[in-house]
Amino acid sequence: MPLNPATKRRLVTAALVGPASLWLFVFLVLPFIAIIVFAFGERAPEGGYQAAFTFEQFANLGARATAFVNTLILAPIGAAACLLVAYPVAYYLAVKASPQRRLLLVSLVVVPFWTSLLVRTYAWMYLLGARGIPHLLEFFGIENVRLINTPGAVLLGIVYGYLPLMIMPIYVSLEKLDRRLLEASADLGAKPISTFFGITLPLSLPGVMTGVALVTILLLGEYLIPQLLGGGKVFFIGNALVDLFLQSRNWPFGSAIAVTLVAVVVIVLLVAMRIAWRVAGTRQVDLV
Predict the structure, then answer these.
(1) CATH architecture, domain 69-285
(2) Which InterPro entries match (predicted)?
(3) For labelling alongside 12, which of 26, 131, 162, 193 has CA 20 to 30 A away?
(4) Which of 232, 215, 234 is nearest to 69 (CA)?
């Protein structure tokens, strides 16, 4: 019996979406369900998980308040710093650079990813350490400068490590920008700053929000940069999770922290996206 067109479309859709959905369910949804189950359990006497149903782990979240505060403060600041550096670079690549130079410059942005983040972070450890920039400043009479093992060192490492991830989404949005809109704005007598805030920025907001969301989400789970450039004095939630799962072997408490972090991330991103789209819609209405 031949299948009707609607049934064929559903089968084709299932064939295309099914493998990806199964992959996400097995490797994303099921592990997260396990983490939720662990969060309501207890630590076994020898470490690990012991079946129970208690809210004790969530009530004890204050014990890791420092990690939460550092993460929820430094991660958005790091993402904002990346944005401030990345937007002018992406704007130049997409709008100002010639087509002949653009490919080379975009390649240079991606080049740092060809080297391990661990190696690049170790390089910053040397530059910020006593034999690096502080040693150089002593020749100019500036002594006792401490750069390593500080929040500033962590932020510097964040900007360096995650800058390409912020540049590329913004570049893609700006590269799709219709240049006729910029020319029309100039012909109508608008100043460059008015054109930027009235046309360029609103149309690039999807790329901005994609970059901010991508960098922020990765930073919330960052472990390596705070560990190496913070010297154990600047803790992120990622550092707390490593300690709880691998050293203290307190899986329920670590799971409770992970579940809380996911909830915070979802709420923050939903609010940020809602604000961004409202701003973009308002700007576009104002141009009409």
Answers:
(1) Orthogonal Bundle (1.10)
(2) MetI-like, MetI-like_sf
(3) 26
(4) 234
